[in-house]
Amino acid sequence: MAQFTTISEILEAVEEQEIVFVKFHFSDADGMFKEIDVPSGLLENAFSKGLPFDNSVGGTFKPTGADLMLKPDPRTFSILSDGDSEQKYGRVTCELTFLDGQAFDGCVRSNLKLFVRKIYQSGYTFFVSSSLSFYLFDSDFKNFACGANSASARCSLSPSSSLDTETILKMENVKRDILSALNNADVDIVSLRQTHAGSPITIVFKEGSVLRAADNMMTAKYLVSDAARRRNLHASFMPKPATNLEGLSAAYGFTLMKDEFNEFYHPDQDMMISDKARGFIAGIFKHIRAISIITNPSVNSYKRIVQKGKAPYYISWSAVDRNSLIRLPSSRGRSTKIEVQNADSSCNPYLTLLALLAAGISGIDENLTPIAAVNFETYDYSESEKSALSAGTLPNTLSEALAAFNSDALIKDALGESVSASVYQRAVREWDEYISCVHDWELERYL
């Protein structure tokens, strides 16, 4: 699908295809799209002047005492189908401002855009490749617990390997619907893959600008959930939906360009990477425990991390060991890339990219050097051996991540006061609720 760039192109397409309404999407601090449906007759004014709304719609935003404005980005507009009825509707991604046009510091998208603009003004451009994993469950997925009424049984779910033929066919139809929707929404991907029955489904996105990468991941989450719902399935981005299931990841690969040259590449240095690449890695290592509250934002996120060999746990980097926190894919030259692997599918891509870029750039500016790379597979290594090769570990719980975030001025400053407060307060509430709740595991063991 051709990408729209101007308001006049959008209005013409809306009229030609008889679009009745357009969904105005904007992200809250938790990385969830909120939406307001706008009738097509009001689009010209909404696109040119913005759409005022009560800021309580934002849900997790810090109260401002003032109404806000939705400012749609025409480049994100697309025309989608609602499924079986084939009725078409539009959607567009928006930013939040005050009514006078001043930036609202609680808008995660505009915060990322402003940060990227500063990088560009210094002569550099980042490009991002990414991937996002999810599961498809039957709409009655809670009934897939194996065995009787026990905590250990309720820890087990089956997303596809033991389902009936009808449900498996629905899942295949959903995959096709997702591919069609991504194409219509102008979300460029490399592949939609599932390695075997029962494994996560992964979308691999094409490399693009930082803001487009975040938009694409948010849009993909919306489209995946919508396509699953229409087939009476449930799409889950829960990091660890069951003990017996592989965790859900979101990987981000960074390339730093200046005048058509990849600044992370150096043909004459060890591993053919530059000092800037090493500084970027070291900066992320320095702040990664604080960043974990963003890349791994829920109590459930740490059920995936503490499995260790199943997800990055030790703070290490490698071109060989695939479970390292940071991996260097084998391509060099223009394709030299630094891939961060600890994030999970529940994270907010706008905040994740902002925090990782802020940390990495600080490492370049401070001329930091990371620990030695691990140039071999550590799958069979003991935990003590892996620990000796690392610069520490990721947090074991959301509580540990909270403490690290609260003491990291650089990351909080990069996010901005309003977003930092929202992130922190949400995590505090979740942790307090979690530790005060009596769980099935406790009942089975202690009652």
Task: Give short descriptive properties of this protein.
alpha+beta, Ubiquitin-like (UB roll), 6-stranded mixed beta sheet, 2 domains, 447 residues, 9-stranded mixed beta sheet, single chain
What topology does this entry show?
Blueprint: H1 7-16, E1 21-27, E2 33-39, H2 43-49, E3 51-53, E4 68-72, E5 78-81, E6 88-98, H3 108-121, E7 125-138, H4 151-154, H5 165-184, E8 189-193, E9 201-209, H6 210-230, E10 233-236, E11 250-258, E12 261-262, H7 275-295, H8 301-305, E13 317-318, E14 326-327, E15 338-340, H9 349-365, H10 383-388, H11 398-406, H12 409-415, H13 417-435, H14 440-446
Parallel strand pairs: 1-6, 13-14
Antiparallel strand pairs: 1-2, 3-4, 4-6, 5-6, 7-9, 7-10, 7-11, 8-9, 11-12, 11-15, 14-15
Describe the structure in your own words.
- This protein is an alpha+beta fold and 447 residues long.
- It has 2 domains: 7-104, Roll (Ubiquitin-like (UB roll)); 114-446, Creatine Kinase, Chain A, domain 2, CATH 3.30.590.
- It has 14 helices and 15 strands.
- Strands 7, 8, 9, 10, 11, 12, 13, 14 and 15 form a 9-stranded mixed beta sheet that branches. Strands 1, 2, 3, 4, 5 and 6 form a 6-stranded mixed beta sheet that branches.
- A hairpin with a 5-residue loop joins strand 1 and strand 2.
- Helix 3 packs parallel to helix 9 (349-365), helix 7 runs antiparallel to helix 9 and helix 7 (275-295) packs across helix 11 (398-406).
- The longest helix is centred in the middle third of the chain and has 21 residues, at 210-230.
